[in-house]
DNA sequence: CCCCCCCC
């Protein structure tokens, strides 16, 4: 890791223009907030000095960035939202948290910093595992996978059905342990391991497949995509390929496993990991559309009247104007970063007022400006530089988004129609042909889910899954 | 369709 970049400690709330090179040291499973339907995912990032910072992803960004921030990989990160952790919860003052969102710039660096990462782990010897049985401690082990058993369904003591799958690990002393993967780990990590197993010849695989497992909290465990994480196991595997071959083919560690030795180190018993159905039953986002005839004006002058966007999907971009880049949202490989107008304003009619946001065309129409001008404008605008209020009635098509736990609706202006454009009452109730706004598109509801996302998506519906992996002890192989 | 923020 070079040192031309800042370190985690150099970045405080308000620090500008920073870039930190980090390794994704831990990646926790996405969770649903206890007091709101918000989904969040915490990561631990580590810089070249081994300092760490907690980074959080929210909502849709979790799936958006899941292939972007891979455990064990190195990234250059800039422009994350940096703030002190909530005073209500922080253990000590000065604790910093990064929020990763669409405006965060993330660049993959092809560097292997696994040694740095590994150096922060303390691994428990397989032979010491029995003393931790049933103690519910978090620990890490390191080893090579030499077998994957079929997945199976078990019933927990609460009657819940869980899918599990066993892996057999071997360490450098040829001790074996059975690692049981639970729920989402079966769908994700086990599937991933199996895929790689099929792609490679047996000797390639066993010689290079190495991993470290952390049962820390609900953290994912490490499996490096290219299996380069634990170099030392590569050479060990090559040197001892005959013995490992024999273990794989003979499987004598299985026949010599007394079932009574199977005892879980940790069981999912934490009641607070489960969600009461009644607390999620009524939750839904209500969206309503309606028309308002009235006037609009900007009340908050000091706001940002634009954001950098993807020319393909309009989502926020972390790139510089004009740059061609792969968009994390729409996956367009040659997206272009272009400004998009945005304005926060107040709508009034004789009965009252609401605050509303307009984005894109309606914003440009209202401001009588365009995104590029807005982007280049450095001073707080005045009425001379853009229109800040409309002095005659216009018709606004507004979307209301009611948010759980937020007392106020948020309003968004989808388009603006000048009343003169509407000829008489014949068009009443119809969308006008000429409107100032985005083209109206009627899209089939789409789902962005893919198989590999099912973990996160299920996590919010069924709340927290039991995604801990437990280590079960098998008889040693010698 | 887009912005903002969000959790322990």
UniProtKB/TrEMBL annotation:
Keyword DNA-binding among UniProt keywords: yes
UniProt keyword terms in alphabetical order: DNA-binding
Superkingdom classification of source: Eukaryota
Molecular-function GO terms, alphabetical: DNA binding
Stretches the record annotates as Disordered: 447-478
Domain Replication protein A 70 kDa DNA-binding subunit B/D first OB fold per the UniProt entry, residue ranges: 4-99
Composition skew (Basic and acidic residues), residue ranges: 467-478
Keyword DNA-binding set for record: yes
InterPro entries documented for this protein: NA-bd_OB-fold (IPR012340), RFA1B/D_OB_1st (IPR003871)
Pfam name, any one: DUF223
Protein name: Replication protein A 70 kDa DNA-binding subunit B
Lineage, broadest ranks: Eukaryota, Viridiplantae, Streptophyta, Embryophyta, Tracheophyta
